[in-house]
């Protein structure tokens, strides 16, 4: 059974637009998954108190049969393949892929919380989800 997952993409190091492009291509190649829709790209201020460049952000809708934990692991593999090095929590990054929602599933484990706990505080994610819902003719 396929679920609709929403993945947030963000980049604030290097060629940000190219990083988002490469991440979308990698997402489209995931097994048992299909890229359904992409939001507009918007520039946002970084979160946290560290001085760093602004982000380019985008949200994608992905139809997938991968379980949430397997999808998260795949997202982290994509990040590593695109040069992401995990440092401090709010540090700048070449690419950041966050699993924001996975169907209507609610869960909390040591590695994953759904929906993403940052969703209520990130207005740009909410705008992107609303844009995807309009594009797909359904609730995101």
What does this entry look like structurally?
The chain has 140 residues and is an alpha+beta fold. It has one domain: Alpha-Beta Plaits. It is built from 3 helices and 7 strands, in the order E-H-E-E-E-H-E-E-E-H. 31% of the residues are buried.
What is the count of structural domains?
1
Class derived from helix and strand content: alpha+beta
The helix tally amounts to 3
| CATH class category name | Alpha Beta
Strand content: 25-35%
In terms of topology, how is this protein built?
Elements: E1 3-11, H1 16-28, E2 33-38, E3 42-44, E4 55-64, H2 68-81, E5 96-102, E6 107-108, E7 113-114, H3 123-136
Antiparallel strand pairs: 1-4, 1-5, 2-4, 3-4, 6-7
Defining traits:
7 strands; two-stranded antiparallel sheet; 140 residues; Alpha-Beta Plaits; alpha+beta
Short description, anyone?
This protein is of the alpha+beta class and 140 residues long. It has 3 helices and 7 strands. The strands form 2 sheets. Strands 1, 2, 3, 4 and 5 form a 5-stranded antiparallel beta sheet that branches. It has a two-stranded antiparallel sheet with strand order 6-7.
């Amino acid at each position: 059974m396929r679920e609709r997952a929403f993945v947030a993409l963000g980049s604030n190091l290097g060629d940000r637009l190219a990083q988002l492009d490469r991440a979308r291509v990698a997402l489209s190649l995931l097994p048992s998954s299909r890229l359904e829709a992409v939001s507009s790209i918007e520039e946002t201020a970084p979160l946290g108190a560290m001085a760093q460049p602004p982000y380019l952000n985008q949200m994608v809708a992905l139809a997938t049969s991968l379980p949430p934990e397997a999808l998260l692991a795949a997202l982290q593999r994509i990040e590593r393949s695109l040069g992401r090095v995990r440092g401090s929590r709010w540090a700048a990054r070449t690419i950041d892929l966050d699993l924001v929602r996975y169907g209507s599933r609610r869960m909390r484990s040591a590695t994953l919380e759904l929906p993403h706990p940052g969703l209520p505080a990130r207005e740009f994610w909410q705008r992107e989800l609303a844009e995807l819902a309009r594009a797909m003719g359904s609730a995101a």
